[in-house]
């Protein structure tokens, strides 16, 4: 039973209409339309239905799996950027925004409070360590 809970969920498409059915209807409608002689013929896209979705999914696989730990690391990285500890990955400039850094630290503290007793030991340790480090850095940066 516990093994089934870890697997997640399954989505089943129970619609009666498939993409192939819709594609056939579209082609029939296109055949009925009259082409005007002064309009150049439109080129059909070279990608098959679903190829664009598959390409997007392939690109998405380049990112790490979303877990609680990667979420905490993502928030802490953002806090470090706003603390001026690391350069912004987009602009490659070091800029401080202590108000945003504090908001992210407060968000992590809220997560710690709301998830108390529901995290695995290493997840809880990670969250506590990240919060401790970010709080120290914030105090140092704000001069308090």
Describe the structure.
The structure is a single chain. This protein is an all-alpha fold and about 140 residues long. It has a domain at about 70-140. It is built from six helices and no strands. It has helices spanning about 1-5, 20-30, 50-60, 70-80, 100-115, 120-140. The chain starts with a helix and ends with a helix.
Break the fold down into its secondary structure elements and pairings.
Blueprint: H1 2-7, H2 19-32, H3 51-60, H4 68-82, H5 98-114, H6 121-142
Helix pairs in contact: 4-5, 4-6, 5-6
Portion of residues in beta strands equals under 5%
Mean pLDDT over the residues? 77
Intertermini distance: 51 Å
Poorly predicted regions: none
Largest sheet: none
Which features characterize this protein?
144 residues; 0% strand; 6 helices; 58% helix
Short description:
With 144 residues, this protein is mostly helical.
């Amino acid at each position: 039973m516990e093994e089934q809970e870890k697997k997640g969920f399954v989505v089943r498409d129970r619609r009666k209409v498939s993409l192939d059915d819709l594609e056939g209807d579209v082609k029939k409608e296109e055949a009925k339309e009259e082409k005007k002689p002064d309009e150049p013929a439109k080129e059909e896209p070279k990608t098959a239905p679903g190829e664009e979705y598959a390409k997007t999914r392939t690109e998405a696989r380049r990112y790490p799996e979303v877990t609680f730990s990667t979420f905490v690391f993502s928030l802490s990285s953002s806090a470090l950027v706003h603390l001026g500890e690391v350069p912004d990955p987009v602009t490659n400039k070091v800029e401080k925004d202590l108000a945003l850094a504090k908001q992210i630290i407060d968000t992590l503290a809220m997560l710690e409070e709301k998830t108390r007793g529901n995290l695995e030991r290493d997840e809880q340790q990670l969250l506590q360590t990240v919060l401790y480090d970010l709080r120290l850095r914030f105090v140092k940066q704000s001069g308090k």
